[in-house]
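Interim report, section 4.2 (structural modelling).
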Amino acid sequence: DAGVIQSPRHEVTEMGQEVTLRCKPISGHDYLFWYRQTMMRGLELLIYFNNNVPIDDSGMPEDRFSAKMPNASFSTLKIQPSEPRDSAVYFCASSLGEGQARILYQAQHFGDGTRLSIL
Amino acid sequence: RKEVEQDPGPFNVPEGATVAFNCTYSNSASQSFFWYRQDCRKEPKLLMSVYSSGNEDGRFTAQLNRASQYISLLIRDSKLSDSATYLCAVNPGFSGGYNKLIFGAGTRLAVHP
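Predicted structure of the assembly:
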């Protein structure tokens, strides 16, 4: 079974450039999550979608960050303009989420992540 | 106070040892609980869900204590390959956002020969 697929695996770019991270969730999953992980702050939820609709973007650090999910099989996280403090590993995860009583449906499955370095 | 707290460790244990981690959560309405394992420079991977009655998967046992608002993970007969960071994750329930998970900072385990 194909898991969550993220691209690129690594991105190194200069400050001020636009960065676009991509994610393909597991087929049939209707929740998609974007996280950022750093040593200092751990794993932080940035935004999540249900059936392609953004549900909670309270974790998005500032207006430089935006996320879209144009269809059930694709999402992007964009940073424009990028800054050195945005350097982190960005993970995408997906889950089924149907039937809140079914605990296993809430378990999230992560992609390999994108290691982002802003110089 | 953080929503989900873990002892960062590291826990340094010899092979064969039994080790236990705790994770406390602040939202009493939290609905479901998970343990994830994360290897260095890798993504978090689901280790096990935590059921109200406690559950076991081989050498791993997870327990939930709703009264004291913590979950635990017990690893018996530790292997070198168990060395990783263990993250607990809590679904805060309807009031906190159904279907999202709040992660702890993780507890690092190092198993040595």
